[in-house]
């Protein structure tokens, strides 16, 4: 694996971890009635997934 | 001068493309998917709009409270309302980007005038739908918008009274107002799809949806924004009091802000001129091929004997100018013997670009006044010089 690809792997791992934390936050928001927070965290997860897709592509793990 | 300006804007557009390409690969470049992003936002608007519609009551007594109930008491109601509101802004932003990009890259020439004209109609309808959406909330902003619109409509010569009646159901605030506004919000939204159909008719490979990376980004951004800056109503409308302030959404309500400085009739005239000029843009520059310095190649012709019905030309034509029809008899060449279909050129749609000639591996298409041997000679001479 090249250095460039390794850097993207690192970003993917970080973004996946952020998504996991957000998922926990959504569950907490649902249980405690903080729906606005839950909604915002859904947005964060979608953004994180978007950047994961970009990293997968730029790291050469997916093609056109 | 206009041509020089367009050339400068094209260069600037391409520079922006290059900058974006440093971050995003070509097939992820969001500027190539402004139309697809608009479709995405429109779909989100329709889905979230259906949800809002189920809770909304179009009457003076209950409109505001139904919106407040949805916002404050329904789980995720505020999020859905915010998604509807911010998706409308997103829709307008990408539609404007789409317009300017296609304008600066001159993608309104030849048969692309129809997508351009239908696009202008879509933009006009979008503005109207956005304003009626703000009116439905029936807070103080809604009341101010209704009053200002009614006043402006009444000043239109000859049809002013009729226009105000058509929009609001009569003079003053009648019980018909909110049901009518609800219809004027949803009805034109259906009209958007009619114009979208027209918008796509002449485009063979429209990018109707953005790539996943941008679908996720756009949805994520809207939902995050909804959580960070929640959408709220202003104080409820009080019919006996004229509201003193008007909170402006610059994407939809700029004309109402401009009413502070300009009479409504001037603004209406300005809007008519702007829309009229928008519709005129495709015809502003020389349009014939000779005026553009292009060879008059003639409408593409199918050499029936060679056509194998493979559909390559049909898929490659960007102008939807080729249809495949059942072939009653086989072709002459060996490859064309077993054909089930054959290509037919729709002359009114052909722009004589020659893409189909390049797409056909069986030499079954030609431009009558620009034959392949002419091109071959031209390329050879260019190479030799």
Q: What can you tell me about this protein's structure?
A:
The complex is a heterodimer of chains A (64) and B (385). Chain A is elongated and about 45 Å long. Chain A has one domain. Chain A is built from two helices and no strands. Chain A is an all-alpha fold and 64 residues long. In chain A, helix 1 packs antiparallel against helix 2. With 385 residues, chain B is mainly alpha-helical. The longest helix of chain B is centred in the N-terminal third of the chain and has 28 residues. Chain B folds into two domains: 282 residues, Cytochrome Bc1 Complex, Chain C (Up-down Bundle), CATH 1.20.810.10; 93 residues, 2-Layer Sandwich (Alpha-Beta Plaits), CATH 3.30.70. In chain B, the strands form two sheets. Chain B has a two-stranded antiparallel sheet with strand order 1-4. A two-stranded antiparallel sheet of chain B has the order 2-3. In chain B, 31% of the residues are buried. Chain B is elongated and about 80 Å long. At the A-B interface, helix 2 of A face helix 4 and helix 9 of B.
CATH architecture of the largest domain in chain B: Up-down Bundle
Shape of chain A: elongated
| CA-atom Rg of chain B in angstroms | 26 Å
How many discrete domains of chain B?
2
Compute the number of strand runs of chain B.
Answer: 4
Count of discrete structural domains of chain A: 1
The H-and-E topology of chain B, N to C, reads as HHHHHHHHHHHEHEEHEH
Derived from helix and strand composition plus strand pairing, the structural class of chain A reads mainly alpha
Q: Kindly name the structural category of chain B.
A: mainly alpha
Helical proportion of chain B, percent range: 55-70%
Report the CATH topology name of the largest domain in chain B: Cytochrome Bc1 Complex, Chain C
- Biggest pleated-sheet summary of chain B: 2 strands, antiparallel
Span between termini of chain B: 33 Å
